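BUG-315 | component: ligand-complex export | severity: low

The export step for phosphoric acid mono(formamide)ester jobs runs without errors, but we want the raw record kept on the ticket for reference. Input record follows.
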Amino acid sequence: MKNFISLADVSDPKALVQEAIQLKKNPFADKALGKNKTIGLLFFNSSLRTRLSTQKAAQNLGMEVMVMNVNQDSWGLEMMDGVVMNGDKAEHVKEAAAVIGQYCDIIAVRSFAELKDRNADYQEIVINKFKQYAGVPIVNLESATRHPLQSLADCITIEEYKTKPRPKVVLTWAPHFKSLPQAVANSFSEWMNISDVDFVVTHPEGYELAPEFVGNAKVIYDQREAFEGADFIYTKNWSSYKNYGKVLTQNPDWMITMDKMLLTDNGKFMHCLPVRRNLKVTDEVLDSPQSIVIPQAGNRVWSAQVVLKQILSGL
Ligand code: CP
């Protein structure tokens, strides 16, 4: 693997999931692989899980880790070419990415969608600029349109918890008062489309995801109908793609409650976290045995580790 920016960088996603599950049994077996290698983790946005799990994964592989909060700890970065840099951005990504590439063997980047200009966000300017100028492999820690390390952890979790060969997986929108990116939902849909699952997406009208991410999913606008017989309920809020970045409704009827979970086939509740309790999901669901959000977050280590292992193996 040369980079890990999207599913397209993975030659065999199902084998990658199985490799992660094996690696989890013996986490320090590849400690020599990362000796004298450095990963730089660059955060344009906040993080708990991605930051700590990727550090842990790199350390399990014997790597050195450098972490930087871009725009807070460093200079503001200009992404556009040909501009007169007379504003608040003191350094161009051309130099910054190339310089960080001198210090690091792998660079991992988190940069969320700004949700102002759909074309700009869906061009993935930040992560693609790093790929263009860094000269070393790039790992996506959540970009404008995708969160593939999360999706890989989700696939590992579904593989571990499934009770039938082809489970029914439902991605459901849940209410939130803020405008949130589509990245997690997009990426989850992309990975579910190539998994051995019956994949259903449910959301209020107006929250349709981009067609290239929905793929062959069955879209059902009635949440209760979508939940019937489900094995996994994957909950996420996202803002509108069509009416880009807008919050069209905060309808609390879309919150995940135990009476909806009772429609499932003893379905497991999943969420990438962080989650706002009693806004998107009730305490009762989140604190129930049906919730697997903690082992799901735990699997972020193994998704990061298997990706870094594959990249290191090719250096
Ligand atoms: N799920 C996830 O990416 O968590 P963080 O935003 O805390 O990294």
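Assignee comment: Attached the raw record above. The first helix runs from residue 13 to 25.
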